[in-house]
Design a protein that fits this description.
- Belongs to the metallo-dependent hydrolases superfamily.
- The structure is a single chain.
- By secondary structure, the chain is α/β, with parallel strands linked by helices.
- It has a single domain (about 15-340), classed as Metal-dependent hydrolases (TIM Barrel).
- The chain is about 35% helix and about 15% strand.
- It has helices at about 15-20, 55-60, 90-100, 120-135, 170-180, 195-205, 225-240, 270-290, 310-320, 325-340, and strands at about 35-40, 40-45, 50-55, 65-75, 110-115, 140-145, 185, 210, 245-250, 295.
- Helix 5 links the parallel strand 6 and strand 7 (about 185).
Length: about 350
């Protein structure tokens, strides 16, 4: 990683150790291998009140009882080199993550980096080449998120996506380039953007695309108290999205404060049974639509950590997957992630 300045992204995420410790559970099915395909690492806040979630903190979560054998790091605008040319500033994040090693941590087997996919092809290829080299064999995809809402002030983590991004011809050219280079496209957006994403997926069937966080059904601001209406339209969206064979679905990220469940406001964190009762139908509908071979459980930590502890979250996933056969469980917990991102069958 080069020297230089890097930005601080301040999404208001608190680690809340004492609060999370109020809900403890025995580990279910502790020998089941898990590939966690979606997590971040960052240091943000102020020098007086820093919020640090780097590899040691993540290792404590992944080592809390479940058998997490591999992970995939997802870009979060951490450690960018602001002294580099604009199209190469994010390369420092990839280089930093690729340099991380810790004997007690599950290895980061894949890296999803950020590149501006609207760049001219010569600059885009230069950036992708730089990320590939810096990733030391671990670059597996790119995320240039489309998340955009007309009332960002109501959101704890407002998206940075440009209006109409998915329909932008330059952006589509960039997403197509990823497919040609054998890289996946991850995205994050809000539920009211699902149809725009559907148009993108249909237009570029040669690029494998991963829908993060169920399309983030919002539950705050103008969407508060509208969960039933939102879910009704969302169910149709998932059924239509699943008709695109190039799409995969990440199952997680529903516990962000912007989803509106309000877990973070309770006296104690939710249990796995609480999550199953409240959210199980969202998961089962997506699995019914896509099938286990195109779905993967994700932690989305530390963002979802504002609401639930790591060991409780994966207990919830295991309870939710109980009706499935062994092959289907293997897909949901590890095999879909490995196949989607081309991860090795065993850890480094």
């Amino acid at each position: 990683m080069s020297g230089g300045r890097y930005p601080r992204w301040v999404p208001g995420i608190e680690l809340r150790e004492d609060w999370l410790a109020l809900t403890r559970e025995e580990i279910i099915d502790p020998d089941r291998e898990i590939v966690d395909p979606h997590h971040h690492l960052w240091t943000h806040g102020t020098s007086e009140a820093p919020a640090i979630y780097e590899l040691p903190e993540f290792a404590r979560d992944t080592g809390s009882g479940h058998k997490v054998v591999q992970t995939v790091y997802i870009e979060c605008r951490a450690r960018w080199d602001l002294d580099a040319p604009a199209h190469l500033q994010s390369v420092a994040e990839t280089a930093y993550v690729a340099s991380l090693t810790a004997p007690e941590a599950a290895p980061i087997a894949g890296i999803i980096a950020h590149v501006d996919l609207t760049l001219p092809l010569d600059l885009l290829d230069e950036a992708l080449d730089a990320h590939t080299a810096s990733g030391q064999g671990r670059l597996v995809g790119i995320r240039h998120s489309g998340a955009c809402d007309r009332e960002p002030d109501s959101l704890m983590i407002p998206g940075r996506g440009a209006p109409g991004l998915y329909a932008n011809p330059d952006f589509r050219r960039g997403v197509a380039r990823l497919g040609a280079r054998g890289l996946a496209y991850d995205t994050w957006h809000y539920h009211h953007q699902n149809r725009d994403f559907l148009d993108l997926a249909r237009a570029l069937p040669e690029t494998v695309m991963i829908l993060d966080h169920f399309g983030t059904p919002l539950g705050v601001g103008r969407f508060a108290e509208q969960r039933d209406e939102i879910q009704s339209a969302w169910r149709e969206d998932m059924a239509d999205l699943a008709q695109c064979p190039n799409l995969r679905a990440k199952l997680g990220g529903l516990n962000m404060p912007d989803n509106g469940w309000g877990w973070e406001k309770n006296e104690t964190p939710p249990s796995s049974d609480d999550l199953l009762k409240a959210q199980g139908d969202w998961y089962h509908h997506t699995i019914d639509c896509f099938g286990p071979s195109r779905c993967m459980f994700e932690s989305n930590f530390p963002v979802d950590r504002t609401s639930v502890d790591y060991h409780v979250l994966w207990n919830f996933f295991k309870k939710l997957a109980h009706p499935f056969d062994e092959e289907e469980k293997n897909a949901l917990f590890a095999d879909t992630a490995r196949a989607t991102y081309g991860l090795p069958d065993s850890s480094f």
